[in-house]
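We emphasize that the prediction below concerns an isolated chain of 66 residues; any contacts that depend on oligomerization or on bound cofactors are therefore not represented. The input was used exactly as deposited, without trimming of termini.
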Amino acid sequence: MARKPNYRFDRLQKDRAKAAKKAERLEAKRNRSAKAGQPAEDEGQPVEDEGQPVEDGGDRREDGES
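Result of the prediction step, given as a token string:
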């Protein structure tokens, strides 16, 4: 009898393998850039702007009407 497929578990395993591979590549990139004397770039990390107001993009009006 064939086993019942567990798609969620399979997806989690794929995602974990992909994250581990990505972490290895980032570590290798950091090591290469450290040897070259240049700062490493974090492409996957969001950059925070200090002092810039954050817009929520909502449709709320200040006078209370919707």
